[in-house]
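Design job #97: recover the sequence.
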């Protein structure tokens, strides 16, 4: 972590929805601005806890977030968790923000009784693949699939590890 960077992680609050949507939009947005629909999605997720959302703050500024819950994959066991989303502002890459968010998600999944956790990552996102692999996740190449992200088709692979 950068020596001058002090980041805290806490559960997201409804007032965080627009900032969470903005961080997410930076990575997957296909339009120039965050849409009201994107903000509404994150507001609903925060309100109902599906997924659970935690935010990383530098001071009062949200610099990243993680969404996690039980796995959405069909036929997965109730003890299988999933990191639904983990995004950090590009200005804060490589400074320990992602690790702090992963730690919060891991603790939350453990509290929920999950023994294993997965994450779906696009094959072209080398930074995310490297992050999850450094966090102990292993690629499951038999899970390769094509997904629609916005209006674009992308190849994704599932990564998996034990929660503890």
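Job complete. Output follows.
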């Amino acid at each position: 972590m950068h020596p001058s960077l002090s980041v805290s992680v806490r559960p997201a609050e409804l007032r965080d929805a627009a900032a969470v949507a903005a961080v997410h939009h930076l990575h997957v947005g296909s339009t120039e601005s965050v849409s009201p629909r994107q903000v509404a999605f994150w507001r609903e997720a925060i309100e109902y806890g599906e997924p659970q959302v935690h935010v990383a703050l530098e001071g009062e500024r949200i610099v990243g977030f993680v969404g996690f819950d039980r796995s959405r994959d069909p036929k997965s066991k109730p003890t299988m968790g999933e990191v639904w989303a983990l995004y950090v502002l590009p200005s804060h890459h490589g400074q320990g923000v992602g690790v702090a968010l992963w730690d919060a998600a891991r603790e939350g999944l453990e509290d929920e009784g999950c023994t294993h956790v997965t994450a779906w990552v696009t094959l072209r996102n080398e930074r995310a693949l490297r992050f999850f692999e450094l966090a102990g996740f292993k690629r499951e190449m038999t899970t390769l699939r094509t997904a629609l992200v916005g209006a674009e088709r992308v190849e994704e692979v599932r990564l998996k590890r034990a929660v503890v």
